[in-house]
Amino acid sequence: MFRSCDRCDNPATVHLTEIKGGSKTERHLCESCARALHVPQASKELQKLLKSFEPAQSLAQLATKELTRACPECGITWAEFRQHGRFGCARDYEIFGEEIERLLKRIHGSSTYSGKMPGGGSVEAGQRLDSLARARKALQDAIEAENYEEAARLRDEIRKLNEGVGGGDGGGEPGTAPERGAGADAGEPRRADGGG
Amino acid sequence: MAARGNAGAPELPDLWLLQPGKEQDVVVSTRMRLARNVSGFHFKTRLRPGEAERLEGHLRGVIAGVDRTLRYVSMNDVSATLRDVLYERHLVSAEHVADQTPRGVAFSASGTTSILVNEEDHLRIQVFAPGLELADLDRRVNALDDAIGMQAPYNFSERYGYLTSCPTNTGTGLRVSVMLHLPALSFRGEARGGRVAEQGIVKVHKAAQKLGLTVRGTHGESSRAEGDFYQISNQVTLGRSPQQAVADLQAVLSLVVDYERNSRTILLKDDRTRLEDVVWRAWAILCHARRISSREALAHLSALRLGVCLQLIDSVTLPTLHALMVTMGPGHLQHAAGRELQPRERDAVRAQLIRETLQRR
């Protein structure tokens, strides 16, 4: 269905739903009016990609609950993310883990990082840390499944990987990232919402 | 709109495009940028009231600590004209100009480094070089990135790498863009029926797409190719290391550069007179026009650039053409005039600037 922009006659491509104090308002804008009003927009390709994630009609109800789940840190919902194509904080990557995993695979053909570590660590070290995090997760799964043979193998693998990292396991939790997201770490120079 | 008093107009950086570069007959410039977000703050779209100011202040301090020689400009403290000037120098993006959030840019006196604060991500660290220059830029951008990251820890996950506001940058956060001048590949020559030429550019698009690269206009995302200037950049930031991304780009680039050079040779062999005619007409118009738009001027400057590279004309040099491409922009014209100029006025001032520059030999 064709809809023209609220401000001019161009076709509307940016659709906004604002919920303020319980009342819902919809706005439909063309790209240039949206830009003039400083509405952040996803690029055309990204918008198309995000559209493809819209649930099938029969699944819609089930999905509504998922879509309204909000990040406790920044408050964004998956539905809001889909509208603008921008995340609200680093925590979203955990909160919407499954959706993000699929999205990243669609965009990049992969969801596995390959590159340096913060502070100038090498690519190899980065990949080793990544393998380590995965092996730890696999070990946990193996123990839970009472697959002790696999667990023993993984334990040895982790030991070997740890030697490569330089022994500095640092006691990190399985799959823990150095930065877990906005405000998650203690002792940072400034905090997102600390009274300053 | 005048600059608000206290800040004063900062000294502009050098025009680095005047320096010679590798493969400069086809490759105009190379840019590398890293997208980073700082731990402890929300991403741009969800910054709380007051958070953007605090973040800008924090990062401004961190950047000054890392490199004291960088000049910092708070975008809300300078005139609209100066913001345009920074944009025309590629130091800031169009979004950074139009935005109203507390935000800024730190840049080097050479103009080849710029760090955007509170753009789409908290930090966009970018470095430039004339011509094709990947290794040196890689070193420079990573040195800056590591130094800043030591003072302002980044959002990073082992699984996804650097966490960015837009999922298209997640991972390395790296965008390598190479600006190319492809007049022969986009030449709609009657002698060759036009079809050959259009296919050239289409082929480039297809080859790029296969390797996860994209081809765009000169000012990046959503800008059109004007004056036959195109930008090729990597799109994939996950699953591929930065080294691989650079290698893929290099592979496509060497193909495109050869392809453009061969097409120039063919054009020259097919109908040298026609090519000379295009170049000298461009010269004539630029030397005599009394009112000219940016778009028209750029098209003629593009023809002259081709003429210089093919040695069809020696009345002008690449540095002069590159300087004009920047200084004829609306921001630069108004900055030089010291006042706001209406579009018609600008076209006249632009024509005068071009005439005087080209005839000063």
> How widely separated are the two ends of chain B?
36 Å
> From the structure provided, what is the oligomeric state, counting identical versus distinct chains?
heterodimer
- Main sheet: strands, sense, barrel of chain A: 2 strands, antiparallel
What portion of residues of chain A is helical?
40-55%
Count of beta strands of chain B: 10
Please describe the biggest sheet of chain B, giving its number of strands, its sense, and whether it closes into a barrel.
8 strands, antiparallel
Overall form of chain B: globular
| Helix and strand composition category of chain B | alpha+beta
Biggest interface, chains and residues, is: A-B, 57 and 55 residues
User: Which residue ranges of chain B are poorly predicted, with pLDDT under 50 across at least 5 consecutive positions?
Assistant: 1-7, 189-197
Mean of pLDDT of chain B:
89
Radius of gyration of chain B, whole Å: 21 Å
Structural class of chain A: mainly alpha
Average pLDDT of chain A works out at 71
Biggest sheet of chain B: strands side by side, in what order?
2-3-4-5-1-8-10-9
Number of helices of chain B: 10
Q: What is the β-strand count of chain A?
A: 2
Describe this protein's structure:
The complex is a heterodimer of chains A (196) and B (361). Chain A has eight helices and two strands. In chain A, strands 1-2 form a two-stranded antiparallel sheet. The longest helix of chain A is centred in the last third of the chain and has 22 residues, at 123-144. Chain A has helices at 31-36, 44-51, 60-67, 78-84, 92-95, 97-108, 123-144, 148-165; strands at residues 14-20, 23-29. Chain B has 361 residues and is an alpha+beta fold. The relative contact order of chain B is 0.13. Mean pLDDT of chain B is 89; it is low at 1-7 and 189-197. Classes of the chains: A mainly alpha (196), B alpha+beta (361). At the A-B interface, helix 6 and helix 7 of A face helix 1, helix 4, strand 6, strand 7 and helix 6 of B.
